[in-house]
Amino acid sequence: GENVEQHPSTLSVQEGDSAVIKCTYSDSASNYFPWYKQELGKGPQLIIDIRSNVGEKKDQRIAVTLNKTAKHFSLHITETQPEDSAVYFCAASKGNNLFFGTGTRLTVIP
Amino acid sequence: DSGVTQTPKHLITATGQRVTLRCSPRSGDLSVYWYQQSLDQGLQFLIQYYNGEERAKGNILERFSAQQFPDLHSELNLSSLELGDSALYFCASSVNTDTRYSGYTFGSGTRLTVV
Known about the structure:
The structure holds two protein chains of two kinds. Chain A is built from no helices and eleven strands.
């Protein structure tokens, strides 16, 4: 099956700075890569996703990049705000199930 | 509110016992997925049902079982519970079996504590 690795496991940034979370995957057939945000006491929530026919996708302060050759994808959050503090999960799929990374705990320091 | 309802929110039980976790998918969703999230661990896929039938199995222990009923709600049964089964159990739903086009919607989870 698919193996997704995610780094770093924890990340602290000053408010207003950028945050980058990186993931690698093992199955070259994977073609869908969503990112989820999990706030304390809640279930993961989809924040952005990218499909393999696209190299980059942006939604306001959030962007995701995909390098299919290297089999890695990244989440970029610009102008971070305290409400961005949460655990972020990357995932990969080839159409059936999602395989998740181990999560990154992001703390934005005011 | 994501539209995926999980009950109960919290559950405390003793080792050796059996519990049932319930999930009602978002309206219109036919697929239900169960995940386990242990402390400092990622989301481990357990099992998937689509329209009442089992579609995929992940790292689900033999002591665990699940089913999806005609009204599409699903139940995850955990038996002979051990301390290590303490975790958050999430249910997610999607319209069909292809995650690329419908994505997942997660519930808020059931926190199981085995003492």
